[in-house]
Design a protein that fits this description.
The chain is of the alpha/beta class. Helices cover 31% and strands 20% of the residues.
């Protein structure tokens, strides 16, 4: 009776904030939980990122564990109602914490976690970015758990006779730790935050040339589905907004530099009105112009 009471209290603590997660069917094998087009705060409690489950046959492969322990617990509970399968691996697409702070839940289940070799250089912080911005109730049991299997160039998993190619971008793109997860049998690639289609991307931790080169590579892949880290578009057009924005930003900043326009004037002049209706334009675009100028003119990254 005591153990039952402890179990009830434990589950209640994890549901103190109900993320109200709804798995969306992407393909025959794939369901994703799509995050809101918002910044993380105490109202959404980090539910502004995508987390996906690929049915390998006898297990799920999880792409990004989400922002908290509670989120990961609730997502897996929803997926067990579709198919009650164990988790074979969790793959973290890059080092930004909204994509991997759910790792602690899967670690407790004994699941192996895979990520870029850059995780081996990460150190635990006193308080995560997520922890500073969301409610304590939602952050219950969340710990900083890094991957233990690292990808330097490419790792290949063979699960239920399906191959999973986990490839490091091997250049600074959105971050210096981006992975591509390609499952040929599913004609799908998961690209993390190389693709945003519900908001403007932030280039603060990235490199324009590396990012565009990586998207050029993705565009050549024989897939029907390209699943990004933010946004609900998952067909081959999912890449278009990010790709077009980054190319236009790079090309127009380059022209301003060639014309001798200084950085302050460039930030004020370069409006790129084609993207004014995209979420986060008002808060992100001017910052992106400034970062792009510094990157291209002075080699600042």
């Amino acid at each position: 009776m005591k153990s039952l009471l402890i179990c009830v209290v434990f589950i209640h603590s994890l549901l103190a904030f109900d993320y109200n997660l709804k798995p969306e069917k992407v393909s025959a094998e794939t369901h994703c939980f799509f995050g809101l087009p918002e910044v993380m705060d105490e109202h959404n409690n980090g539910n502004m990122v995508n987390s996906c489950f690929f049915n390998m046959g006898t297990s799920y492969l999880v792409i990004d564990s989400g922002p908290t322990y509670s989120y990961a617990f609730q997502a897996y509970e929803k997926m067990k109602k579709i198919n009650n399968l164990p988790i074979s691996y969790v793959i973290n697409t890059h080092v930004h914490d909204d994509h991997w702070l759910g790792n602690a839940y899967y670690e407790e289940l004994g699941v192996k976690i895979i990520g870029s070799n850059e995780f081996s250089n990460e150190t635990k912080v006193e308080m995560t970015r997520m922890q500073k911005r969301i409610s304590p109730d939602a952050y219950v049991k969340t710990r900083q758990v890094f991957p233990t299997i690292f990808v330097n160039d490419e790792n290949v998993l063979n699960i239920d006779e399906k191959k999973v190619y986990i490839k490091s971008v091997n250049k600074k793109a959105h971050t210096n730790s981006d992975l591509l997860i390609h499952i040929p049998d599913g004609k799908i690639v998961f690209v993390g935050d190389l693709v945003f289609n519900d908001r403007l991307p932030s280039i603060r931790d990235g490199n324009l040339n590396g990012w565009i080169d990586s998207l050029d590579e993705v565009r050549t892949m024989d897939v029907d589905y390209i699943v990004g880290g933010h946004g609900e578009i998952v067909d081959r057009t999912s890449i278009d907004m990010t790709y077009n924005y980054l190319k236009m930003l790079r090309d127009r900043v380059s022209m301003l530099i060639e014309d001798g326009v200084n950085i302050a004037d460039a930030v004020n002049m370069l409006k790129m009105q084609e993207f004014k209706d995209v979420n986060f334009y008002d808060s992100m675009h001017r910052q992106n112009v400034e970062i792009a100028y510094r990157m291209m003119e002075w080699g600042s990254e």
